[in-house]
């Protein structure tokens, strides 16, 4: 199981304005808690010992919160001088992340595990196969994701190998922003800013991008309107958990 993770938290959060005019997106509260805290909970539960968080926009606020919440257990990858996008941000942090596979988490996507079920990061680690995979992404069916407004990201075959959604398949999946990656995928990465989409496409070309269905409740917070939708779904999910199985 990976003991290292990176949280991608350096984005500008433009679609979340006006909330993000004065608050970095990872600190936007959902159900009374900053979004990034849900990720810290999941990483702590999975026994992850080293966490790297990249920062750029309103970085002082984010660093202050991380320090108060996690003490010195989080390493800050400072991108205040230049925003490096998702892929470039990971490359910048590689010396802090080490040479073994690690988790990558998006700061604006989080989940609630089903009671009694396997924690998702543990399931992801169990499904990871470095002999076949460069990256293992968490995916969810579009109708199982709260706050997603797109047309689908990927499609999967019977072996859970991922390809880009072709716009015609019946069952597209959404990339839920929780993955395990081999650092070797970045061996030939460009210098400077670039998107992780480049790495996805390279892994697809090699037949080494795979997916794992995310169980539980999955939420993506991209707009102010998505906050209320997420909180309503969380209340319903917790009520169902409290009620337990029907006889």
From TrEMBL:
GO terms for molecular function: nucleotidyltransferase activity. Signal peptide: none annotated. InterPro entries: GlmU-like (IPR050065), MobA-like_NTP_Trfase (IPR025877), Nucleotide-diphossugar_trans (IPR029044). This is Nucleotidyltransferase family protein. The keyword Cell membrane does not apply. Keywords: Magnesium, Nucleotidyltransferase, Transferase. It comes from Hoeflea prorocentri. It holds the Pfam family NTP_transf_3. Residues 5-131 form the MobA-like NTP transferase domain.
